[in-house]
Every structure is written in C-alpha cells, then in structure tokens.
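pinging the channel bc i need a second pair of eyes. not urgent but kinda urgent?? the chain im working w is below, pasted from the shared doc
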Amino acid sequence: MGKIIAISSGKGGTGKTTSVAAISSCLAALGYKTLCIDFNARPGNLDLALCLKRSRNVSISDVLSDQASATEACLHHPRIPNLYYMPAPSNFDCSPLFAKIRRDFDYCIIDSPSGIGADFMLAHADTDMSIIITTAELPAMRDANAAQLALCDLGVTDLRYIINRVTKKKLNQLRTMSSDIVKPIYDNLIGIIPEDKIIFRAMHDEIPLILYYKRNSAYHFLDAARKIAGEKIPWRLRLNLTPTASEPQSEPDTKHAAGLGQSPAAENNNLNWIKLTKKKQYTPTIKIKKK
C-alpha cells in the first residue's frame, strides 16, 4: 500500500510548492512510483515547479467511476521516470480517490494550500504523514506551530518539519525565539534546506532541479526524501545547539527516531542557541537519463 503525504505551510513564501516538486522528484529518482497532487483551489504552480505542461484526457471522475486507473488520470513526467502529476480534485470526498492512489503508487505528495482554511483541511483528511515547510523566521515558525495545532485537531499523528531557505543570518536570529516555538520544530525535523537561487533559475530554464547542471539544494532535498523513505542518514547542515546553565536541557526525541534518524535537537539535547555549520558527507548520485 502506498503512502499519502501532505506538505503544507502556515504562511506563504516558505517555498512549499518548490519543496513538493523537489521531494517528489527525489522520491521518483530513488525508484518509488510517486504522484504529485496540486490541492490549491486557485491556479497552482506545481506544474511549473515540475517543468510540466498541463494536458490530460482522463478526468478524476473517470477514476472514481472505475472507468480508468489513477495512473491513467495522471500526467507522466517526460524526463523523470516514476514521477506523475495530477491537478487538484475539487470539492468532493477524496477518500475513494486516495484508496486507488494507494494501490497504484508508492508515494502521493500533496501540495496543500497555505494557511489553515477549508482546502487545507480537505488536503489532510486522509493522509499518513504531514510535513510543514517553514523558514528560520519568527512569523513563519509561529504560523507553523498554528498549523501543527490544526493538524493535531484533525487527528494527524505523524508530523514532520523542514526548515527551508536557510542562511546563517536567519538561523542566528533563532537565538531570540522562545523555545516553546522552536522545540516542536526541532524535535520532528527531517530537512534543512539552504537558500538557493538555482531553484528559480532551473524553473525558468524549464529544467527540473535534479536534472539541472547545478544541484546545490537538490542533495538536501534528496536527504529529506530518503528520511521519508525510512533511511538513516547524516545531516549535511547541522544545527549545533550549545547548552547553558541558565536553560534546562530537553529530553532526546525517541518517538520518531526509528527509521528516520535523530533530529539535531535529539542529538545535541539542548535548545539555547543555534549555529549553522557545514559538514562534508557522502555525495549521492541521482541517475536519471536526460532526453
């Protein structure tokens, strides 16, 4: 059975849609049959982030009436094997559709609308995991906490975070934030993505990020995808948290350690201040044949 994962953010401007496209591409590159669904009610940009042109002859209603499979209703990416795209379903119960998707795909990544509206609730109605994209800024992290509370009310139990568009300056600003805001994020962190102008350059050149000649942040998205798939891998960008006598140490996060590796908060066991350092690790190769 496949896994449904909704990716959301508490506010706009966090790079949610580009993260959906990158993580989906990396899961497909790892050999998983992956479907992206754009759940934005307004015209979404997920197809642009995937460098696709919309064209589809089979509707979602055909899938629900068993006249077509979920795969037939999707747009197959012409350059990335195992990657498929589906526009947003509109105003109907998605449970029957998700049941068919679970049967046909290994992973379904949903691009959930920003904020906490009705479409946000619909996107998370039948998901196995939720990933919140935030940035290292106070408004984004506070909105991410609000999204987490909404997801808990919906009954979502498997919740992860990705801190996107990271710079040293932004991470140093986290020193002034309350630990009540940052601790839930660090305890469930699976990705730290640096600020990368190559993402937008690749999009404008209509080349998927993992196929672009420069793949700076692609490797960080690949690490997040591998953690989603259950691999234990080291961090490329590490959050070093130094304890002080004035602030008590937090308990290690053992709830989500199995299959995902410990978060930086669990490894360093404190939440006083943050320093961004680079640590050389392996360099994975994304093998996709260019056409």
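so The mean pLDDT is 76. and Strands lie at 3-8, 34-38, 75-76, 83-86, 107-111, 129-135, 159-166, 189-194, 237-241, 274-278. — does that match what u expected or am i reading it wrong
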